[in-house]
Amino acid sequence: MQHSSLPAKRRCVLICQHRSCTRQGSAEVLAAFQAMVPAGVMATASGCMGQCASGPTVRIMPDGEWYCRIQRSDVETIVKEHLEGDRPVRNLLHPRFHPLEEA
Q: Which of 5, 26, 99, 103 has a beta carbon 3.0–4.6 Å from 21's, enabling a disulfide?
């Protein structure tokens, strides 16, 4: 089976646009996702996700992955690895929701 010819999985990328995330650059993160997401993926602003101390917060649905402290420079990696490659970016995942496994 050729994976490269398969359409991207339908997903929604939620990018918090509440006060503390906005102060940390979430508007630029939202714009970058909107410019880069593959077909079938929607990137949209969200209200507060309750993770104010670790923003900007990005959540990928329906996958359920939470990313924290995301900057514009992280967006291309998330798009290529997670949205196109179906592999969450471990080092950017929120540790509260995705604790690192012991090696």
A: 26
Does the predicted TM-score (pTM) go above 0.85?
A: yes
Does CATH place domain 3-92 in 3.20.20.120?
A: no
Please give the structure tokens belonging to residue 58: 């990005």
Residue-by-residue DSSP string for 35-93: HHPPTTEEEEEE---S-GGGPSPEEEETTTEEE-S--HHHHHHHIIIIIIT----GGGB
pLDDT at residue 53 tops 50: yes
**What is the spatial order of strands in the sheet that 65-67 belongs to?**
41-46, 11-16, 58-61, 65-67
Write phi, then psi, for 52 (nearest 5 degrees): -60, -35
SS3 at position 34: helix
Domain boundaries, the chain: 3-92
